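Q: I'm writing up a methods section and want to include an example of the input and output format. Could you take the sequence below and give the corresponding predicted structure tokens, formatted cleanly so I can copy it straight into the document?
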Amino acid sequence: MILSFLQNFEADLGDHSVVHVIFQLDITDPDIDDDIRQQVRSLSERWAAVWNWFDNRKQRLSQVLTDWEKFYNKSRMLLNWLTAKEKELDLMKITDLTDNDELQRHFELLEVSLVSVV
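A: Here is the clean output for your methods example:
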């Protein structure tokens, strides 16, 4: 959503680019005085600075979005793993401590769980 917004914004800026207007202006026209030429140059430099800032910001936001998606996916994996382990532990709470076979099965499950962590 954010990336598509930025792409649309960039396209809109490109369509109404001050640089495009400046290129259409003939600075060598004798009717244009030095003050206007200087203003056009200054505006051109400022526009280039704004455009560069926007481009850098777009790249940083794109990288942040990618990093955030990785973080979100890893956190979901961790939560799923924790939920599975909690379910295993809940099953072990109802273990009959007098039944050696059942105790052995639960110990094996714990060993498998510990090995999968390491």
